[in-house]
Design a protein that fits this description.
The protein is of the alpha+beta class. It has two domains: 74 residues; 70 residues, no CATH class. The protein has four helices and eight strands. Strands 1-6-7-8-4-3 form a six-stranded antiparallel sheet, with no helix packed on it. It has a two-stranded antiparallel sheet with strand order 2-5. It is rod-shaped and about 80 Å long.
Length: 159
């Protein structure tokens, strides 16, 4: 789904500047234009209004695009090499029963991670421990650490 999110965001923000380029009189019906009192403006005043609207729409579009970019990056952390490289911090839903290859860990933010290495933490039992999942310095590996334990496990995000 990350690719779908990216494409949707790109399409939405690519279409906004096209609409912003039209003068206000082209975006409103004649009745709306008259009801707003804009027909009383001189040509210079109308041009100034259109210039201000264009700058405002460009600025707000830029803010919205940046916000959407950050949201898409945050939502897609851990998938492939896309998304933010900030660590994921949260809590495991339910009981943590140690590390084991193939085990899945659901976080309180809805993300699901699967252990892909042979790291083990036998006998560990904690209810809803805090976890920190950090990216490796090189490549696209992510490592999960459980609060209170020194062992880390290599994990991949599956949801």
């Amino acid at each position: 789904m990350p690719v779908r999110s990216i494409l949707l965001a790109a399409l939405l923000f690519a279409a906004v500047p096209v609409a912003a380029q039209q003068p206000i009189e082209a975006q409103m019906s004649a009745d709306e234009f008259r009801a707003a009192g804009l027909h009383k403006l001189s040509a210079d005043e109308l041009a100034s209004l259109n210039a201000w609207l264009g700058r405002t729409i460009d600025a707000e579009t830029g803010k919205a695009a940046e916000s959407a970019r950050r949201q898409v990056e945050d939502e897609n952390r851990g998938f492939f090499s896309f998304g933010s490289s900030e660590p994921v911090v949260g809590r495991i839903v339910g009981e943590f029963r140690g590390f084991a290859r193939g085990r899945e860990y659901t976080l309180d933010n809805g993300q699901v991670w699967r252990q892909v290495d042979a790291a083990s933490l036998v006998g560990a039992r904690r209810d809803g421990p805090e976890v920190k999942i950090s990216p490796s310095l090189v490549g696209n590996a992510w490592y999960m650490a459980i609060e209170g334990y020194n062992t880390r496990a290599k994990v991949e995000r599956i949801k």
